[in-house]
Amino acid sequence: MTRELRVVAEFDRGTLIAATSGSEYVIQGKDHAYYVPDKARLDAGLQRVRETETTDAYRDGEVGFDWEAIRDTVSAMEIVERAEQEVMNHTGGDIGDVRRRGIRRRSRGVDDHVTVPAGVVKFADPEADEECGAVRDPVERGLLWGTLKDRVLADMRDIELQYQNDVQRSGLLTARLPLVVLRDGEETMVAYLAAHDHTNPYLARFFDLELETVQEILECYSSEGLE
């Protein structure tokens, strides 16, 4: 079973990669997409450096590190290839190891290797044969998520916005929204909830908007991600 992986969009803070069937027969899970944040690449790069060589090779001056060089030791495509091996049939959402934040740590004297770092989001195909599966197109959701993160975190390079799996499964009345999203206004809230797979009719009803207005908001976000 093989898949074709292609980069759909490069964002300021991450990369969106689509995974489509590369064979003549149906693959379980069908087509989907992954958003790989630069922070995940940094965590994976730091893990690799610690496992294969001394960190001294990446020192930038006497006390600091060349974080960009460490991040570039692992590509977004490589992380997606790992995810395809380890969690291909996962329903969706943040599929990274959130306990260790993607960094190798010592636990009870044993070194743990994290395959997929935290923050990597899988957007599942709505046609996948899964209970409580996705509704929206996976690439659309990935574009919404990548654009939204770039917008709300534009002036906060050291802050990361985590995908919340529970928001994807909750109703609109109980969904949790981060303060940076709330601060940015109604359109950002709509895009955030749509990226978490809430549908246009429900969003229009909840925010008291015309359905066409919701569609225009989301199209604006999606198209910005492709520029």
Layout of secondary structure:
Layout: E1 3-10, E2 14-21, E3 32-37, H1 38-52, E4 59-60, E5 64-65, H2 67-71, H3 76-86, E6 93-94, E7 106-107, E8 110-111, E9 121-123, H4 138-152, H5 165-169, H6 179-184, H7 186-195, H8 200-207, H9 211-225
Antiparallel strand pairs: 1-2, 2-3, 3-9, 4-5, 6-9, 7-8
Helix pairs in contact: 4-7, 4-9, 7-9, 8-9
Structure description:
This protein has 227 residues and is an alpha+beta fold. Helix content is 40%, strand content 15%. It has nine helices and nine strands. The protein has helices spanning 38-52, 67-71, 76-86, 138-152, 165-169, 179-184, 186-195, 200-207, 211-225, and strands at residues 3-10, 14-21, 32-37, 59-60, 64-65, 93-94, 106-107, 110-111, 121-123. It has a five-stranded antiparallel β-sheet, sandwiched between helices. It has a two-stranded antiparallel sheet with strand order 4-5. Strand 4 (59-60) and strand 5 form a beta hairpin. The longest helix is centred in the N-terminal third of the chain and has 15 residues, at 38-52. It is globular, with a radius of gyration of 18 Å. The two termini are 33 Å apart. The relative contact order is 0.14.
The counted number of beta strands is 9
With strands numbered from the N-terminus, the spatial order across the biggest sheet is 1-2-3-9-6
C-alpha end-to-end distance: 33 Å
Shape: globular
Q: What integer value in Å does the Rg equal?
A: 18 Å
Briefly note the structural class of the backbone. Answer: alpha+beta
Proportion of helical residues:
25-40%
Brief digest:
By secondary structure, the chain is of the alpha+beta class. The protein has 9 helices and 9 strands.
